[in-house]
Amino acid sequence: MSEAPDWFWEAVETESTSGFVEVEDIDINYLSWSKPAQSGLLFVHGHNAHAHWWDFIAPSFMDDHQTVALDLSGMGDSDHRDAYSNDTYAEEILAAADENQMPQETVLVAHSFGGMMALRVVSKYPDRFKGLVLLDSGVRHPEDVEERGPQVERWTKPKIYPSREIALARFRLQPPQQCENQYIVDHIARHSVEFDDAEDGWVWKFDDELNSRMSVNGNLEEDYRSISIPMALIYGAQSESFSAKSAAYMKELKPDLQVVEMAEAQHHLFLDQPLAFMDHLKQILSGW
To answer: What's the pTM value of the predicted model, to 2 decimals?
Structure first.
């Protein structure tokens, strides 16, 4: 286990402001690290995650971009819904950008489940964003879909813990993987629990009914095919969620897609190799 380096502390101690925007009758939380600028980066987290997954990433881009991250509904500090859909999540991403007056020169950076939601918003609003960077996410090769089954996260109903310390000790990445940078996992865990007065205990900050209340409209591959703005894919070579076969399939569908394989990374690639990930992202952005 490595100790937290100076760059990490500098990033997570960078001041951010939190705000809410109403989308379809509920409040959506967002974090903002910088003021409106000529270009922007809007970060979208994965399934049952939250905006604080980007605390150690977003500040590194402040000098050149307005940086914002949101909590999708049912996760983090956003409200829960009676029903969820990719169309609703698309509206939440759009609202976070508009509420923060992010320019058209804004790139979406979206991980896992968030990548699928980002594909939806870009397909619905083709002129709103400048580009899209997918992280271990996107259209899977038909053989991968058959072999691996539907993309459903392996979550069970969360338990109620008697103390914050016990909850934090039980925190695990999903899908399960080891991460050498335990200081990053610990930081994420600290922002992943809250006290529930009704349950009189500590619970995870996500709606445990989200999967059963989720519906998907349209077709992911059709959304992907329809997009004309620049796109890039960064994936982990050791990921159990996304394969080189799927990356090649996406490249076949969209020859202009930039593809970066991170050899030593798994699904949570920016936790595994944060500095290398930031270098890759900066290189992609510099070309757009």
So the answer is: 0.95
Tens-place pLDDT, residues 171-197: 999 999 999 999 999 999 999 999 999
All structural domains of the chain with their residue ranges: 6-148+216-286
Homologous superfamily in CATH for domain 6-148+216-286? Alpha/Beta hydrolase fold, catalytic domain (3.40.50.1820)
- The first and second tokens of residue 31, run together, are 């974090």
- CA distances to 9, 31, 271, 284 from 56, rounded to whole Å, are 8, 13, 9, 19
- Asked if pLDDT for residue 153 goes beyond 80, the answer is no
Q: Provide the b/e sequence for 65-97 (b: ≥16 CB within 10 Å).
A: bbbbbbbbbbbbbbbebeebbbbbbbbbbbbbb
Helices assigned H by DSSP within the chain: 6-12, 86-99, 113-124, 142-148, 164-170, 182-190, 220-226, 244-253, 269-272, 274-286
Q: What pLDDT score does 146 carry?
A: 62
Question: Which tokens go with 40?
Answer: 């922007």
- In the block, residue with structure tokens 């050899």: 263
Distances (CA, A) of 76 to 51, 89, 141, 261: 7, 14, 31, 29
Exposed e or buried b for every residue in 33-60, given b needs 16+ CB within 10 A?
bbeebebbbbbbbbbbbbbbbbbbbbbb
Q: Three-state SS across 137-179?
A: CCCCCHHHHHHHCCCCCCCCCCCCECCHHHHHHHCCCCCCCCC
CA distance 265 to 159: 30
> How high is the pLDDT of residue 82?
98
